[in-house]
TrEMBL record:
A Pfam family of this chain: TRAM_LAG1_CLN8
Organism: Nematostella vectensis (Starlet sea anemone)
Protein name in UniProt: Uncharacterized protein
SUPFAM superfamilies: Homeodomain-like
TLC domain segment(s): 136-341
Membrane topology classification: Multi-pass membrane protein
Keywords: DNA-binding, Endoplasmic reticulum, Homeobox, Lipid metabolism, Membrane, Nucleus, Transferase, Transmembrane, Transmembrane helix
Every Homeobox domain range: 91-133
Length: 379
């Protein structure tokens, strides 16, 4: 046991080596000295875990008792789930072709003892079997809209107003100059804990929320964001970390707002919000981040703080996020082009599954019609 304990201590010392995790100009003692004593007393960054739990509870309360009456007033309707007759045979055929031909329908009719009209009705109703209610989609988007709006307002107050004398939002050099003197304020600490708690809660709720086309992209986004927030707080990069989160949140306000009004079928308001989403998304994530914030992270940080292993990994995660931004920008641009060319914002959104479609049932990989002899092979 003593041998194992000694080996564990050696591994622990190697894993948390300052040369791996921190620049040469600082060490763990200096980092610890910059922590706000009040934040440490509250549990330091570990407070994000109970905050995530609280946010999940608050979300349930908000969606059911605040968002539901509001979106109902806006016109969102509760859609009852579609019920269809259970049939394993039809399900197996449906996975290969959503639209069986007449020969297939007749073959299924004889095998099941149903009329051909009943078989046709089953295939018409089957796509709606797993469609979630617009009410649920609207309440989910309402919660995210509320959080991002609140977080953005609070972030603006903390970064712009509270830290106005330090001016590190407009002059990113101040995020890295005198690195060993950056004591995190309680206001910024709460901002970090709230954002971390939200992304942790979203990482879990992704599995129960409306599943969309970009499910795995969101999972990668959330995991990368959590890693970046955790590291930037632990290593003392909280100024640039707060700037990145603040810039990210702005466009999400209009995204979630547009969704709510889309589900309420208030298309004009939805289109206005979508226009604002397009402007803020392209402005913040395709201009400000890659051409202003990222260069500071790559060059200015190296100039004032230094370069080391884990920081390079964090830069890699920032590039992962930027790649995702380009992917989502393509989705938004497709919608915008469709609206301008007359296809209509609503139609394009449905095609892209960016605003409205869930993936509880995915499109079949095989679109060709199934021959009748294949139907006969299915037992």
């Amino acid at each position: 046991m003593e041998y194992l304990s000694e080996r564990f201590d050696q591994f622990f010392a190697w894993f948390w080596s300052e040369r791996i995790w921190l620049p040469e100009i600082t060490n763990w003692e200096k980092v610890k000295a910059l922590k706000n004593p009040q934040a440490v007393a509250l549990g330091d960054i570990y407070l994000c875990i109970p905050v995530a739990v609280v946010l999940i509870i608050l979300r349930i309360i908000f969606e059911n008792f605040i968002a539901r009456p509001i979106v109902k007033f806006l016109g969102v309707k509760e859609k009852k789930p579609v019920k269809i007759r259970e049939s394993d045979l039809c399900e197996q055929v449906y996975r290969k072709s959503r639209k069986p031909n007449k020969e297939q329908i007749q073959d299924l009719s004889s095998r099941l003892g149903w009329s051909t009209q009943e078989v046709e009705k089953w295939f018409r109703r089957r796509p709606a079997k797993y469609n979630l209610s617009p009410m649920r989609k609207a309440t989910e988007s309402s919660w995210r809209f509320f959080f991002y709006l609140t977080a953005t307002i609070y972030g603006f107050i903390v970064i712009v107003y509270k830290a106005s004398n330090e001016n590190w939002l407009w002059n990113l050099d101040e995020c890295f100059k005198d690195f060993n003197s950056h004591v995190i304020s309680m206001e910024l600490y709460f901002y970090y804990v709230a954002e971390l708690g939200m992304y942790i809660s979203l990482s879990f709720s992704q599995f129960t929320d409306v599943k969309r086309k970009d499910f795995w992209q969101h999972m990668v986004h959330h995991a990368s964001t959590i890693a970046l927030l955790l590291y930037s707080y632990i290593a003392g990069y909280h100024r640039i970390g707060a700037v990145i989160v603040f810039v990210h949140d702005i466009s999400d306000i209009f995204l979630e707002g547009a969704k709510v009004f889309h589900y309420a079928k208030l298309q004009k308001i939805c289109d206005v919000l979508f226009g604002l989403l397009t402007l803020t998304f392209f402005g913040s994530r395709l201009m400000i981040l890659p051409f202003w914030v990222l260069p500071a992270c790559f060059t200015t940080a190296t100039k004032y703080v230094g370069d080391f292993l884990v920081y390079r990994i964090m830069l890699g995660l920032l590039l992962v996020l930027q790649t995702l931004h380009i992917y989502w920008a393509k989705c938004i641009l497709t919608i915008a082009i469709g609206a301008v060319t007359g296809k209509g914002v609503e139609d394009v959104r449905s095609d892209e599954e960016y605003f409205t479609e869930d993936e509880n049932h995915k499109k079949p990989a095989v679109k060709e019609e199934v021959p009748a002899n294949e139907v006969k092979k299915i037992q």
